[in-house]
Amino acid sequence: MNHLEKIDRLLNSILDSLFGERDTRVRGWLLLDSYTPTFMLTITYLLTIYLGTKYMRNRPAYSLKNVLLLYNFSITMLSLYMLVELISSVWSAGYRLQCQGLQEAGEADIRVAKVLWWYYFSKLIEFLDTIFIVLRKKNNQISFLHVYHHASMFNIWWCVLNWIPCGQSFFGPMLNSFIHVLMYSYYGLSTIPSMHKYLWWKRYLTQAQLVQFLLTITHTVSAWVVPCGFPLGCLKFQTFYMCTLVVLFVNFYVQTYKKRKLEGDRIAKVGDLKNSHSNGLSSSLNGANSKQKLQ
Predict the structure, then answer these.
(1) 62: which DSSP letter?
(2) Count of other CB atoms within 10 angstroms of residue 116
(3) Where does the sequence pass through the membrane (predicted)?
């Protein structure tokens, strides 16, 4: 047995001991049978950020305008597909909004799981968000929140697909897909200079994300109050994870828009001082001119 096989067995045995028996309905699905590919892709993602920023340090930034337009449009379409398919599948399956178990809808649960697999896979695709930031040398955008959110979601959703691939798990991805339709539409439009004047609603995207997290927490906690057989440990973990995102996004929102407001106030004060100085100078000159005329 080589080292990779040992690592693979170790990683999967740890997860199996933590979470128990996996859901057999997703056996054989791409990337799901072993945690190792997801783990290694995440490590590669983190190394790419670290090494990529070093590589780009003394090199000119790439524009990637057309690439970003295509990428953001593609993610928008994928998000729209997941949103529509989730709404359609849970509606036709008769899912309950408050709490839905894992084994209640038969084949309809498989349909939901298939959409959630695409949601999991989309988190891998979204690693490109950060890669493009590195190539464009927008390193100020590579925050802890950004990396934490991207890396953790991909790994969490591998676990979700293996142990809780349907039922109550549908709600967060449905909301998130809606948010991503708006968000990636915004990013795509921002690559078109003529559209910039219509993109005044950026700050509301962060607000919408916060509302999304709060709704997901509410939905999750409701299943504690009126249980339906969905694993309680998973509900507790999701609540905790969503709370970390709320804290980080609130901090981001406050830091970003408070800083902009302070900067705007500073510029306004400088402008007032300049106007005051100009008016004072103008008055002095007018006074001097009047004095000369009298003489």
Answers:
(1) P
(2) 25
(3) 34-52, 64-84, 117-135, 147-164, 210-232, 238-254
Measure the CA–CA gap between 233 and 8, rounded to whole angstroms: 25
Contact assessment for residue 180 and residue 125, using Cβ atoms and an 8 Å cutoff: no
Alpha carbon distance 42, 80 (integer Å): 25
pLDDT tens digit string along 266-283? 555 545 555 555 554 444
**pLDDT tens digits for range 140-173:** 999 999 999 999 999 999 999 999 999 999 999 9
For residues 7 and 30, is the Cβ–Cβ distance under 8 A?
A: no
Residue 257 has pLDDT above 90, yes or no: no
Contact 39, 11 (CB under 8 A): yes
Residue 153: closest CA among 252, 244, 36: 244
Alpha carbon distance 80, 199 (integer Å): 20
Cα→Cα distances 4→34, 39, 45, 46, Å: 12, 12, 19, 19
Q: Is-above-0.85 flag for pTM?
A: yes
For residue 283 the two structure tokens come to: 């008055």
From residue 39, how far is each of 19, 58, 114, 150, 233 by CA, in Å? 17, 31, 21, 13, 22
Distance CA 30, CA 9 (A): 18
Which 3 state secondary structure label does DSSP give 158?
A: helix
Domain boundaries, the chain: 16-284
Active site residue 277: no
Catalytic residue among 149, 150, 180, 219: 149
Structure tokens at 245: 């995102």
Mean pLDDT of the chain: 90
Q: Say yes or no to pLDDT of 291 above 80.
A: no
CB atoms inside a 10 Å sphere around CB 133:
18
